[in-house]
Amino acid sequence: MKVLEVPFLGGAEDDLQAISLLMAGQPLHAIDNNPWPEFKTTAKAGFSIAHNNSAILIRYEVEEEELKSSSRDFNQNVHKDNCVEFFIAFGNGKAYYNIELNCLGSLKIGYGPGRGDRLVIKPEFLKQVKINTSINYTPNSGTDALKWQLLLSLPAAVFSQDHIAAFGGLMGKANFYKCGDDLPNPHFLSWNMINADSPDFHRPEFFGELHFR
Asked: What InterPro entries is this protein classified in (predicted)?
């Protein structure tokens, strides 16, 4: 199981531009496990993570071949698109949040103990998430034809089923994913390895650990 220290970043409370500059100096962690190798892919993905006590800050970097995404309303099927995901449970809780975004910034968040028992987080909370995306697409130019970045700030209020006053000192169990179910070459990559017969990200027993400093 992987363990990650999540650093505190001061000086960037709500300004995404300032957050972006600070996050650029954070290490990039590869999402490079392919638990289901029958789904071959040349996609490359990684993330940086930090917090500013009031929000979790995540920056994704992705390279892949094809662009297939739609601008969607809140809590739609973004996993079918060029998609990145972050699942987290706080403390020793068995229920976890699934936070999913496509490369256009369309957002879905759910909560529950397993795949079949999810509470959809209300749009009033999702509207508080700050998102910035950058896409560079050159069709038919190889394995890195599509390069995209996504920056998000997830305030404590988004985690509406927990009572989080500040992230500093918290422990979480989490995994990070890259997928695209409806892409020409579907794929399912993870940060922490998953042992399952078929693609399934809703496997909290394979989450790694996050320690918020």
From this structure: Carb-bd_dom_fam9
